[in-house]
């Protein structure tokens, strides 16, 4: 990105385009200009051309502001991008990029060649471990997002996540120190809410599926209004005489937001048990809703502050009132402009490399004329030299023509001999293929056996393993140390030697040998990038009624897998990463209703209901007879609200075929 002392930060939201222009004067940063271009309608309004509205608003902004001579930094919403935080083992700093790339391939849920990504390293002074944040977005989304800017002729110098821009703005404006304790930054957008938790110079973020639109839709349902009128009523809520009724209509959305925030805080504290959340700074236009601060303060029991002013930048006097009105929603644009000046805490630029090169290329165009003239002179001299060399070459070629023809004849003979030898079939390949038929035949029964043993490691009450349902019901549901496995899936992953940098597959090779599949992963590697052995990523989904589900899963089920990474008689080794527990959350009544609705609306259920109606026309069975014919499970009627649903993921790396044959007693 070109170095400049002035930068524009531009955020395209669902309600407006917000732009902030900062100028660096020595060590100080000055607010030079800002603009908020409101859309005619919210972009999420049904049946509108959102892309056309954005392009028209961008054209309006460019007609009043000259942005082409400054750095321009843009943002994408957190819901459109991917953010993952991971801890790396102690390693030489020079090897961190390679390890991060390997981690990115594992963590990003898309092929790495289909995404634009960047990362940020968070050093920990008191620990040898290295924490890294990985940020990515698919190339299709980037192209779609940048198309509106390209259509109005506004090139970008950087692209980052809106949540990172908010963090950069607050870290600079609030002078967040490395020893800061438990601060939450919450930016409520139109569709989603970004929650950023920062402590000790690090950050963690999550995007919640609740935004301003949810409050608007609550007003639509409560007062029977159109979406546009409900949006207007929501904006006028703080000053309306019906603010109390408006708050009551939106109260269910407030409750959902509080539950998501509490769940987020609880999950973060499992990652950082020493964190003490003491303060929440709220921003976004929806934070002005009546009762928002009071409700959050009562439910979270922490200090709630709304972002009404910035400490380090102010607008000139004639626009001070306008700037103060929009301050609550300008944090993202503020952080983007800071990144354009190089004052960001977290640097993540997910702009395509081609777009960056094009931007730099355009800024160097004034120098092209001089360079072109010098190239003409240099080309003329080179052309003259070429003619001289060509003449000398032709003379030498005539003298050596006979020797060249003789050499070519011998070469053609050797090529013919080589092709005749190459056509013969090698029986070793067929023998090896036959040997492979029995490799890994015991793999899946052993994986299922691992799952069974891990489930038994939770000190399950003996009554739960029998069919005495009365004894089971005597145990309170929340005290049953048991898991229910609902789904087990496996995804094969394999990086062949062909994927290694600088490797070319030999021509004519139809079947890969064992050494080519495993490379040097199980041997002493002579390269900097050893090949990963073939592996399966196992994903297990299930539920448990135990009251402390996260502790039960982590300290029993997952711990068993960690303690039995490599067992005798197993043709594989178990790899459990720190993020093995990918998801665990309590089941709500709404989740059960939606699941029952889905189960009741399958094609099979509809056919069964149709057949049942036809049978009922000729046959009437009383309830007692039906219960005898189709008895229900004694535990089926127990309420599942409060049960934990979870998702665990680990990897099994396959051993070399030679080792597998020794395990199965098939070695020659």
Description:
The chain is built from 21 helices and 18 strands. It has 668 residues and is of the alpha+beta class. Among the domains are: 177-310, Nucleotidyltransferase, domain 5 (2-Layer Sandwich), CATH 3.30.420; 443-494 and 534-598 and 637-663. The strands form 4 sheets. A 5-stranded mixed β-sheet has the order 3-2-1-4-8. 26% of the residues are buried.
Low-confidence stretches: 497-511, 520-529
Note the total helix count: 21
Largest beta-sheet details: 5 strands, mixed
Q: How widely separated are the two ends? A: 61 Å
Into which percentage range does the β-strand content fall? Answer: 15-25%
Strand order within the widest beta sheet? 3-2-1-4-8
Average pLDDT for all residues: 81
- Rg value: 33 Å
| Principal-axes shape call | flat
Number of strands: 18
Strand-pairing-aware structural class = alpha+beta
Helix content: 40-55%
Give a summary of the structure in a few sentences.
Helix content is 43%, strand content 20%. The chain has 668 residues and is an alpha+beta fold.
Q: What's the SSE blueprint?
A:
Blueprint: E1 6-12, E2 16-25, E3 28-38, H1 50-64, E4 71-76, E5 82-88, H2 96-107, E6 115-123, E7 130-138, H3 139-151, E8 158-161, H4 162-173, E9 183-188, E10 193-199, E11 202-208, H5 212-223, H6 227-235, H7 243-271, E12 279-283, H8 292-300, E13 303-306, H9 320-326, H10 331-340, H11 353-363, H12 368-422, H13 427-436, H14 443-456, H15 469-474, E14 484-493, H16 514-518, E15 535-544, H17 549-563, E16 572-575, E17 581-586, H18 589-600, H19 603-618, H20 623-629, E18 644-654, H21 657-663
Parallel strand pairs: 1-4, 4-8, 9-12, 12-13
Antiparallel strand pairs: 1-2, 2-3, 5-7, 6-7, 9-10, 10-11, 14-15, 15-18, 16-18, 17-18
Helix pairs in contact: 4-10, 5-6, 5-7, 14-17
